[in-house]
Amino acid sequence: MACELETWFKISILSLVVNLGQLAVGEPQVPCYFIFGDSLVDNGNNNDLQTSAKVNYPPYGVDFPGGPTGRFTNGRTRVDILAELLGFEDYIPPFATARGNGILKGVNYGSGGAGIRNETGQQLGDRICLDTQLENHNVTISRIAVLLGNESLAEEHLRTCLYTVGMGSNDYINNYLRPEFYPTSRLYTPEQYAAVLTEQYSRQLRILYNYGARKVGVLGLGPIGCIPFEANGSLCVGRINDYVNVFNKKVLSLVNDLNHNLTDAHFIFIDPSRVLSVDPSSSGITILLTPCCKVSTGYGKGQCIPHSVPCSIRATSVFFDAFHPTEIVHGLVAAMLYIAMFPNNTYPIDSRTTLTQLSAP
Ligand SMILES: *[C@@H]1O[C@H](CO)[C@@H](O)[C@H](O)[C@H]1NC(C)=O
Ligand SMILES: *[C@@H]1O[C@H](CO)[C@@H](O)[C@H](O)[C@H]1NC(C)=O
Ligand SMILES: *[C@@H]1O[C@H](CO)[C@@H](O)[C@H](O)[C@H]1NC(C)=O
Ligand SMILES: *[C@@H]1O[C@H](CO)[C@@H](O)[C@H](O)[C@H]1NC(C)=O
Ligand SMILES: *[C@@H]1O[C@H](CO)[C@@H](O)[C@H](O)[C@H]1NC(C)=O
Ligand SMILES: *[C@@H]1O[C@H](CO)[C@@H](O)[C@H](O)[C@H]1NC(C)=O
């Protein structure tokens, strides 16, 4: 079948652009932002873990001020850009190093290789699964209670924060699609596996709610059958994208249930496969299935070869390595997240995040 990514590149990025309004300056639009997820948001939590899923070396970070940080892309991730759009002066710090008053503005728990399921990614080495990320959040909450004076003040603070959760990619890439390491594809049909994952995800999102989260963006999966690691030459694997669609559909109905059943809950589902629905001629993104960097075939398979020279124009590629999108694609996801979560706000543009950066080659 033809590459589905091509057909996903449909809605013009201009439709994003027209939603953008005035320059917003001053206080961030939310006081705090907490991030749960995998390598799409990890900003250094894996750096000191024993794992091949860490990338604190060049060419990662080639477009990031200060170079490599552990981010799995050339520049900023979706959550960095969202933090900028929200008016935060700094990026949300990784749990591994966040200390002091800074945690009042949020913490990033994301970990490369991690999944909804506890065992996901274990063939890569250490990683911080979603259950453990939630335990780490509980540690942060105790620290916030100390900083603010008591538990009830911490709870009050946590209710005002924004949360994003994006999990599940590794439950396919580093679990279900790896029968040599994991039994799940023999135990479950794709439909059953998506149901089992969604059940666990439901418990986890309810824990987050019980910790005080009220406004939560839940990111579905992108077209995993189109990542260079899974793609069949220049073709997306439709079967894998079908798995993704089944999962995304179940998470969408989970989000509806949570909003229906939990008082004051505002869960919002975002489908990144729709985010990639960009007309390449208007976005300048022309290189679809070829990674920008030269990727390893041995240790750290699919990640950039350390110290290799990446492609010279990153903004024309969808993928930086064989798994992870470039900053420009992260920017599109961030813009969609922002618009979905704050539909009535004008779009803040500051000196660091300009639309040109999001839309031009
Ligand atoms: C993950 O699963 C293992 C084995 O079942 C268990 O020992 C461990 O406590 C679990 N970790 C978390 C965070 O649930
Ligand atoms: C969260 O941490 C507190 C200690 O600060 C502990 O009493 C509580 O059981 C923890 N909650 C969960 C759900 O692990
Ligand atoms: C927490 O601290 C605030 C401000 O000091 C106080 O008004 C409130 O009664 C305290 N709550 C509890 C449960 O101790
Ligand atoms: C890869 O593409 C070729 C050519 O279209 C096709 O014959 C083959 O079945 C595909 N392999 C997989 C695993 O989808
Ligand atoms: C949540 O609400 C849905 C209706 O949206 C209902 O069908 C479902 O049973 C409820 N689930 C729970 C656990 O309360
Ligand atoms: C956005 O504005 C519309 C119309 O004014 C209103 O009905 C809606 O509740 C607003 N949504 C949010 C999230 O504030």
TrEMBL record:
Signal peptide start-end: 1-26
Superkingdom field: Eukaryota
Keyword terms: Hydrolase, Lipid degradation, Lipid metabolism, Secreted, Signal
Chief place of localization: secreted
UniProt cross-references to Pfam families, sorted A to Z: Lipase_GDSL (PF00657)
GO cellular component: extracellular region
Localization annotation: Secreted
GO biological process annotation, one example: lipid catabolic process
One of the record's GO molecular function terms: hydrolase activity, acting on ester bonds
CDD domains reported for this sequence: SGNH_plant_lipase_like (cd01837)
PANTHER family named among the record's database cross-references: GDSL-LIKE LIPASE/ACYLHYDROLASE-RELATED (PTHR45650), OS01G0748500 PROTEIN (PTHR45650:SF3)
Family: Belongs to the 'GDSL' lipolytic enzyme family.
Protein name per its UniProtKB record: SGNH hydrolase-type esterase domain-containing protein
